[in-house]
Design a protein that fits this description.
- The protein is α/β, with parallel strands linked by helices and 348 residues long.
- The protein folds into two domains: 238 residues, Type I PLP-dependent aspartate aminotransferase-like (Major domain) (Aspartate Aminotransferase, domain 2, 3-Layer(aba) Sandwich); 94 residues, Alpha-Beta Complex (Aspartate Aminotransferase, domain 1).
- The protein has 14 helices and 13 strands.
- A hairpin with a 4-residue loop joins strand 12 and strand 13.
- The longest helix is centred in the last third of the chain and has 16 residues.
- The chain is globular, with a radius of gyration of 21 Å.
- The structure holds pyridoxal-5'-phosphate.
- Pyridoxal-5'-phosphate binds next to helix 3.
Length: 348
């Protein structure tokens, strides 16, 4: 990777070890249950999340949608944060394809939702109302700056859900970033939920794929949903092989991305005109904005960083930006990116 691409962790390329594993992967028709590499990856994912079973799907979006379809029927209601990925960025799939009614609760800046508000959102049994059926959590929370949602909060949601007979799903696209930041196994988070999805294709560097994990019964429902959605794949072992490398080699090193995020954030904080809350930088995502007095349009900053310094940066709308750290952004590249920011913002 010869540019410094901070737009997302999804831009990360597969590692050399992944390309080698892909070349050598044993495969079969996974729709017929014949692909040993997919089966191995699914078993590893189930073990890592402390669940009975797992299913390999093409994307995090499909993992969350399959989870919703497995937990809910048409006319059921899903409680989720107004800043959650499922509500904001998944094309309304739960409503479009599932007939599921999304009921949003305000996300706090730390990625949580107020538990009293959540409880008040749960519907009594009455023909006027959709049936409350499931709660979706997100950890780390993307729009809330990559915030780590603490296990104790998740336990609180779980006990509330149990009292009302609701299922809890965790959108853990960056589950392992949360676990590494907390210094705990992922199971300390996932034991508070019925189902969990996580992405292989973000900080874990795989080319494609997510896993959806839960009880054997839930996963067999999710497999049916995957087929319905067109996501059942044939010799998917070539993709799963990269996933196995990710689970074996790429989790513990996420701490390096977190350290690099901190370096970048501290460097940005020293540049006049950059507004950033360092307390909110907890994992591999760095959110910041251009002060209103800086005589530069956000698009200009993005364009000049790209053209003059080979740095690619993502816009968050208005004067806000998100930079994502990943395997291909080494500490040296963080320094190079900061040189670019300083030059463009006139602080060199
Ligand atoms: C990226 C992401 C997803 C969806 O993953 P895709 O593979 O891009 O479909 C879901 N939830 C969160 C929090 C994400 O960041």
């Amino acid at each position: 990777m010869n540019n410094i691409d901070l737009r997302s962790d999804t831009v990360s390329w597969p590692t050399p070890a992944m390309r080698e594993a892909i070349a050598k992967a044993e495969v079969g028709d996974d729709v017929w249950g014949d692909d040993p590499t997919v089966q191995r990856l699914e078993a590893m994912a189930a073990e890592r999340t402390g669940k009975e079973a797992a299913v390999f799907v093409p994307s995090g979006t499909m993992a969350n949608l399959a989870a919703a379809l497995a937990h809910c029927q048409r006319g059921d209601e899903l409680i989720l944060g107004h800043l959650s990925h499922t509500f904001r960025y998944e094309a309304g799939g739960v409503a479009v394809l599932g007939g599921i009614h999304p009921h949003t609760i305000t996300n706090q800046p730390d990625g949580t939702m107020n538990l009293d508000e959540m409880e008040a959102a749960i519907r009594p049994d009455n023909p006027h109302f959709p049936r409350s059926r499931a709660i979706f959590l997100e950890n780390t929370h993307n729009i809330c700056g990559g915030a780590v949602v603490p296990p104790v909060y998740m336990a609180g949601v779980r006990s509330l859900a149990e009292r009302h007979g609701l299922a809890v799903h965790l959108d853990g696209a960056r589950l392992f970033n949360a676990a590494v930041a907390l210094g705990c196994p992922a199971t300390d988070l996932t034991r508070h939920v019925d189902s969990v999805s996580f992405c292989l294709s973000k900080g874990l560097c795989c080319p494609v794929g997510s896993l959806l994990c839960g009880t054997a019964d839930f996963v067999s429902q999710a497999r049916r949903a995957r087929k319905l959605l067109g996501g059942a794949m044939r010799q998917a072992g070539v993709l799963a092989a990269a996933g196995i490398v990710a689970l074996e080699q790429m989790i513990d090193r996420l701490a390096e991305d977190h350290a690099n995020a901190r370096r970048l954030a501290e460097g940005l904080a020293d540049i006049p005109g950059v507004e950033i809350n360092l307390d909110r930088v907890q994992t591999n995502l760095v959110f910041f904005s251009l002060a209103p007095w800086v005589p530069m349009e956000p698009a200009q900053l993005i364009e000049r960083l790209d053209r003059e310094h080979n740095v690619k940066l993502g816009s968050r709308g208005g004067r806000a930006f998100r930079a994502c750290l990943h395997y291909w952004i080494t500490p040296e590249r963080v320094e190079m990116a900061l040189v670019g920011f300083r030059a463009v913002l006139g602080a060199a």
